[in-house]
Amino acid sequence: MQAPARRPRGRAVDHRLGVAGRDARRAHRLLAAIESAADTVQGWQPLLIPGALQSYAYACEAIRSTSPALPLETVGERADVRRRRIDQLGAAAEFIVDEGALYRPVGGYAALVDQLEHLLAVEALQPRLTLRILPQGIEAHPGLAGPFTLYRAAGQRAAFVESLTSSEITTRPDDVAAYASAWERLEGLALSPRESLDLIDATRGTLCRRLKTSP
Prior knowledge:
This protein is of the alpha/beta class and about 220 residues long.
């Protein structure tokens, strides 16, 4: 299957593209084209560190845990692609991550410490990146429905939603409006960027001390 031609900046994708199984590669190729053309990226992740912000070891375990049948070589290739995404992203990007993701030992606690250090390093090196944490214990919110990413290019918007077995990219106005509304709600509940970085660093420090004192 040939990858779809790269779309020029500002041109809308199909109103809804849903693919599943092996055809999910088509959505990921289209997603890469959308990311390269985007002016802004807004991503919500309630369970894991967002793919574009994942370290290599963390990405390997995240991919392996959701796709256990993948050959190890393929897992490594996909993890490497994730690790490079943030450097290839020219857009202003903001990610909101649930606090629980900071404590989930994907790949073990040593890998989690490496991931948190990676987050702090990436944020420091990427001036157009904003990272915010949604604290635990807050009220119910639209983000409980699952992760999503919003893209804007030349005034047009698209939403990307991924589940265990399928992916969907949509530009339908009603769909995009629903995700944009959910994003605004999450922005109102999330910690400030400074508070978020302080929480990430404090969590990293706590885990480092725990690892040093472990038998």
